Amino acid sequence: MKKRLKVLSIFAAAGLSVSAFASEGGLVLPNDEMPNYSEHRLTMSMQNGMQVYMNNCMGCHSLKFQRYNRSAKDLQISEDLMINNLMFTSEKIGDLMTNNMPTAAAEKWFGTAPPDLSLIARSRNPQWLYNYFRGFYADESRPYQVNNSVFKDVGMPHALEALQGIQDKTEEVKGLENDIAYAHGDIASASQKIKDGGKKGELNKIISEAEHQIHEKEAQLAELSRQGKYFTLIKEGQLSPQDFDSAMVDLVNFLEYIGEPIKRERKGMGVYVLLFILFFTAVAYLLKKEYWKDVH
Ligand code: HEC
User: Fold this and answer.
1) How distant, in Å, are the alpha carbons of 44, 245, 251, 264, 295 from that of 51?
2) Beta carbons of 69 and 93 less than 8 angstroms apart
3) What is the pLDDT of residues 138-187, one digit of tens each?
4) Sign of the CA dihedral with 89 first, then 92, 93, and 98 last
5) How far apart are CA 88 and CA 293, in angstroms?
6) Distances from the Cα of 82 to the Cα of 62, 72, 158, angstroms
7) Helix H or strand E segment including 205
8) How many angstroms separate the CA atoms of 112 and 32, rounded?
């Protein structure tokens, strides 16, 4: 019993430190779930995602672990269609999916060179990507006049502006963020006063009141985001917000495919492996019965 308690308390401590870490990183919004497709719908989604990628991303981000013909085969795109419509940075269908982005110059342009995205769906995760692509908003203070609510101060321009248009945070969101910033300011100045020998009791009360405020306002922000009231369009794009979201699902599905091209085969194979194990268990059982029948 004692041992079990000890184990439990270790888990509890680990849990506490994880949640402390999570709150340190601050609130990341939007954090919407991405719809899940399968079968034919998934294939069509990946095809469309590849089209979005080739037209908007390939100039900056290579996918250098993948070849065009492999994508064509897996995504059921004919090689002619691939060569004529989706290959802008290579000539041969057997080429790796690279581009000609000069790394050193790119670092100068963007602050960071655009990374290869072959494995991005594994190093980040699909939900993060889905929200990142939908998280660009107007911010005059940034070099490209946009910021990203999921990846703060990102060096990437809003590559999908033509499709999405430009969105801004809603007034409600801006108000809440202001309140949170003020509360953080209150905490900082009260902490400083404590350090300088101020009245602890009173100052601690100010701090806990401010923390409470932050907690409450963050919950309101999360609620606004859930209701789709985090951003508002200030300039329309070619796609409606619904169509844009759906195109982003496609884009992420494509990146997920690129991150593990045999994922679907692996899953399909799993069923056969399980069936084989079941079948083999039955055979082994019958065999055992046969061998032992004379012993008893
Ligand atoms: C004009 C060049 C450019 C274009 C076009 C572009 N990006 Fe980027 N992207 C960048 C740069 C530069 C960064 C690195 C930003 C940073 O780390 O601050 C980046 C970062 C990213 C990241 C985050 C990588 C990480 O560190 O986790 C993802 C994901 C991404 N881009 C996806 C895309 C997709 C998908 C498209 C097409 C819709 C696209 N990018 C179009 C330049 C570009």
Assistant:
1) 11, 15, 8, 20, 68
2) yes
3) 999 999 999 999 999 999 999 999 999 999 999 999 999 999 999 999 99
4) negative
5) 71
6) 16, 7, 26
7) helix 200-226
8) 27
> What are the sequence ranges of the domains in the chain?
30-136+236-287, 171-229
Residue 98 CA to residue 62 CA, distance in Å, equals 5
Cα(5)–Cα(175) distance, integer angstroms: 46
Ligand 1 centroid distance, CA of 69 (Å): 24
Question: Within 13 Å, how many C-alpha atoms sit on residue 200's CB side?
Answer: 2
The CATH architecture assigned to 30-136+236-287 reads Orthogonal Bundle (1.10)
| CA-nearest residue, atom 36 of ligand 1 | 57
Q: Is the dihedral of CA 168, 181, 28, 152 positive or negative?
A: positive
Name which residue sits closest to atom 15 of ligand 1, judged by CA: 155
Residue 23 scores a pLDDT above 60: no
pTM of the full structure: 0.85
* Closest C-alpha among 193, 254, 224 to residue 57: 254
Measured in Å, residue 255 CA sits from the centre of ligand 1 at 13
